[in-house]
Amino acid sequence: MSMLHESGEDYLEAILMLQIKRGSVRSVDIAALLGVTKASVSKAMANLEARGYVEMVKRDVRLTEAGREVAERMLERHEFFRGLLIAAGVDPEVATEEGCHMEHCLSDDSFHKLQAYLSR
């Protein structure tokens, strides 16, 4: 599997969040959550499917094992940074947006070290 761009990671995270909330995921649900067009979602899903991260089954979008691994990692990071920012006094809406950016910029090693350090 090749490396994903930030947007690809965001799509996978959105799919996971929708699966947790609703069970099944359609492209229109992803578009609504991310605030993008259905055409953008269609293009992204074709790319992610070609790379082995999602499967399109009729109208449902499903994460593959590889896609779920990336999505869970991104969601964990997002929730960590969002919580950290809120604990520091940042407005929850701002923390959600900024946590989304922060989740992408650290290596796995740095993230886990920071997480361990702050958990002491």
From TrEMBL:
<protein>
    <submittedName>
        <fullName>Metal-dependent transcriptional regulator</fullName>
    </submittedName>
</protein>
<dbReference type="InterPro" id="IPR001367">
    <property type="entry name" value="Fe_dep_repressor"/>
</dbReference>
<comment type="similarity">
    <text>Belongs to the DtxR/MntR family.</text>
</comment>
<dbReference type="InterPro" id="IPR036421">
    <property type="entry name" value="Fe_dep_repressor_sf"/>
</dbReference>
<keyword id="KW-0238">DNA-binding</keyword>
<keyword id="KW-0805">Transcription regulation</keyword>
<dbReference type="InterPro" id="IPR036388">
    <property type="entry name" value="WH-like_DNA-bd_sf"/>
</dbReference>
<dbReference type="Pfam" id="PF01325">
    <property type="entry name" value="Fe_dep_repress"/>
</dbReference>
<dbReference type="Pfam" id="PF02742">
    <property type="entry name" value="Fe_dep_repr_C"/>
</dbReference>
<dbReference type="InterPro" id="IPR022687">
    <property type="entry name" value="HTH_DTXR"/>
</dbReference>
<dbReference type="InterPro" id="IPR036390">
    <property type="entry name" value="WH_DNA-bd_sf"/>
</dbReference>
<dbReference type="InterPro" id="IPR050536">
    <property type="entry name" value="DtxR_MntR_Metal-Reg"/>
</dbReference>
<dbReference type="InterPro" id="IPR022689">
    <property type="entry name" value="Iron_dep_repressor"/>
</dbReference>
<feature type="domain" description="HTH dtxR-type">
    <location>
        <begin position="4"/>
        <end position="64"/>
    </location>
</feature>
<keyword id="KW-0804">Transcription</keyword>
